[in-house]
Amino acid sequence: MAVSGLWEWMRGYVIIKVTGRMLERFVNAAASQHIDLSDLVRVGEGAMMARVSLRGYLQLRPLLSAFGCRASVEMRGGAPFIVSAAWRRKAMVVGIVLFAVALYGLSSVVWTIDMTGVSPERRARIVEVLERLGVRRWVRRSSIDIDFVRDELARSVDGLAWAGVELQGTTLVVRGADMIMPQRPVGHIDLVASSDAVIERLIVLAGEARVREGETVVSGQVLVAGRAAAVPGEQPVHARAIIRGRVWREFRARTPLEIEERIRTGKSSARYLFTIGALRFAVGRRGAYDAYDTEELVRRVRIGRGGPFDVEITREVRHELSLGIGSVTRAEAFALAREEAASAAQRAIPSGAERVSVLEESVDELGDDLSPSAVSVCLIVETIEDIALMRDNVSDERGE
Asked: pLDDT higher for 256 or 274?
């Protein structure tokens, strides 16, 4: 039977079974004396179950005798019985309390400090800074000012691009990234042509111009020259300029009118390759097809923390192919060849280039019987783009 309220649970209650011939008169007498019998249920001829508080149960004794009834306690519940049971097991209660206190105490301190993203040299420096700030194992989590520690690491550790500090349970996680310093050139910098072009615009910011606008240049030719240091300790002059040139690029593609068709027949075979360290073995069969294509799915399972116990599982599926010869029309062949040439142009031309014109040519190739056998497409793309390419001139600095 359910407890009706928290107050009744605090006072304690019992569930009793009352037997006798005058149960109705017994219940009425209990009600007249304000003894609350709740959850009354008949459980047979001359028997019923009820829930009553501890105080009420003690007050029922005279009424039970008066009406010839007997009561037995079927179940006890509430705080008084829990406290009584705990008092009889003092050692267990003390152990539970001590365990709870120890668990709370251990969860309120830092057990480990984890660092990711930093080199070993800077890792040692970070440990020094954390020690200076009093951040170490077994310190209270509440005593760590995360924002202050993060700012102090960024300020005190040289070569650290950024630092992040956070508490994850009992672990202090320090994340960082080493600063990547740009390499300084050994000698002075020249600007050379990245490709064959005609100079369209030339604005020299530093250095000496070696070409003029309208002049044709070849790939690798010096456009603006820097200057080596005249005396030891002097900084070299690095060439800087805005140089845009007119560049022509040619892209070709060819599509035959008869092409090979590769159609899957529906037959396939699968096998699994297991790689454990240097050991490699296969399970399954590999289909002996004259023509096939292969699909592979690789999955790596880590056992432990890396090492020779990592398992790599590769599922290799072979699909049988039926080969045949299919034909396409000249228009279809031209479209395929043009798309291939345009894709090659898209990959080769720099993103910042300005396309000026596209010249398109197509040629029908003839076979041995003088009938068309293929279509060739040539795209000549004219662009205006930045053609300046920096080159470190080491030889002049070394006097070679």
From this structure: 256
